[in-house]
Amino acid sequence: MSGSTIGKNFTVTTWGESHGKALGVVVDGCPAGIPLCEEDIQRDLDRRKPGQSPYSTPRREEDKVTILSGVFQGVTTGTPISLIIANQDQHSKDYSQVAHVYRPGHADYTYHHKYGIWDYRGGGRASGRETAARVAAGAIAKKVLSQLGVRIQAYTLSIGPIKVNPENFDENEIYRNPLAMPDGEAAKKAAEYIQQLKEKGDSAGGVVECVIQGLPSGVGEPVFDKLDAALAKAIMSIGAVKGIEFGRGFEAAYLTGSQNNDTLVYYPDRGLTKPTNNSGGITGGISEGFPIVFRAAFKPTPSIRMPQKTVTHDMQNTQLVLTGRHDPVIVPRAVVVVEAMAAITIVDLLFQRILSRIDLIKKALS
Ligand SMILES: Cc1cc2nc3c(=O)[nH]c(=O)nc-3n(C[C@H](O)[C@H](O)[C@H](O)COP(=O)(O)O)c2cc1C
Ligand SMILES: C=C(O[C@@H]1CC(C(=O)O)=C[C@@H](OP(=O)(O)O)[C@H]1O)C(=O)O
């Protein structure tokens, strides 16, 4: 097993390398009867695809998706859905300079030592390009969730030291500026910051925030498949993610219980309410029925143009000045990847939720 599958009830298996002929995904466990066409998937793929702004890798890929199976007359059939996306603009020759040298910060050294063989053309399975397949699967998971009134929205919260000002928050901005920042002012400053780093051959990191709305309480299993644990696994499996926090996150460790607890208030007209959401919408690993909020920290892109010390495959010290096409910042293109991994996880655990109570099983069979 190559660890390329996630999920138990809604399984997603990605395949393909950055410099192979194509990449793709098999989604198994999608219920029958959901309207699905290539455009539904393409919309999200277009948000991730490379070459669309000066703040992205200039590699030009159309990332056009083809549905190979599992859909008939525009509706899912309940059988495995197989999707393929061609690679068109590999430039594999760019990588001849690192055929015998390990790139600092990328997976070259660890992959080579794990497998004893290293396809040096691009990052292979470790390439950010693998996330195209995740986004395609995520679009299917989102279609399932849209039928249930669950909505997932991620955006860039910060790039380097530049943060979104909550007072300027404008959801439309996420789709208006190429940095997917819900604050036009912050996006302008972040663009300048990235431009300065690009000129030096350096790169930036940042934080993606994700909000899940409309998810009822009761989703998530009590022990190993806690909703926060499952989301953490899914999000941490995205290349370059170095941390995740829910709600108040790491800050909670510095508070007292009275400061951190979310108090509960019931109003006959509004039902149960929580004036704060320090928990991020999950307690005991189970969704509360309030918005789920988490943040993922992305490291700066490892492939940079500045001279770096490294070693050759035969352990000679050397200096590397990388050429090739890379994202000066990963975060804006990863926003939709975060949404996809969250959607896949939520659907998987939602299906498990139905199996946790006899009344829900009876309802499903009636
Ligand atoms: C959407 C996306 C785009 C990425 N683009 C690049 C890139 O252009 N160049 C690069 O060196 N790494 C890029 N990465 C990061 C590498 O994939 C990642 O750093 C590598 O797999 C090593 O894994 P680690 O950083 O999690 O340890 C990208 C990641 C994602 C998710
Ligand atoms: C092509 C994409 O991004 C790539 C992610 C990536 C990496 O190392 O992660 C390295 C670059 O790949 P290559 O050097 O093979 O062009 C980026 O262009 C993509 O995301 O679609």
From TrEMBL:
Cofactor note: Reduced FMN (FMNH(2)).
Binding site for NADP(+): 48
Swiss-Prot/TrEMBL keywords: Amino-acid biosynthesis, Aromatic amino acid biosynthesis, FAD, Flavoprotein, FMN, Lyase, NADP
GO CC field: cytosol
GO molecular function, one term: FMN binding
Matching Pfam families: Chorismate_synt (PF01264)
Location of the region described as Disordered in the Swiss-Prot/TrEMBL record: 41-61
Pathway: Metabolic intermediate biosynthesis; chorismate biosynthesis; chorismate from D-erythrose 4-phosphate and phosphoenolpyruvate: step 7/7
Gene Ontology terms: biological process: amino acid biosynthetic process; aromatic amino acid family biosynthetic process; chorismate biosynthetic process
Residues passing through the membrane, by range: none
InterPro entries: Chorismate_synth (IPR000453), Chorismate_synth_AroC_sf (IPR035904), Chorismate_synthase_CS (IPR020541)
Keyword Lyase: yes
Reaction catalysed by this enzyme: 5-O-(1-carboxyvinyl)-3-phosphoshikimate = chorismate + phosphate
EC code(s) of this entry: 4.2.3.5
Assembly and binders: Homotetramer.
Family: Belongs to the chorismate synthase family.
Entry protein name: Chorismate synthase
Species in which this protein is naturally found: Caldicoprobacter faecalis
Native organism taxonomy: Bacteria, Bacillati, Bacillota, Clostridia, Caldicoprobacterales
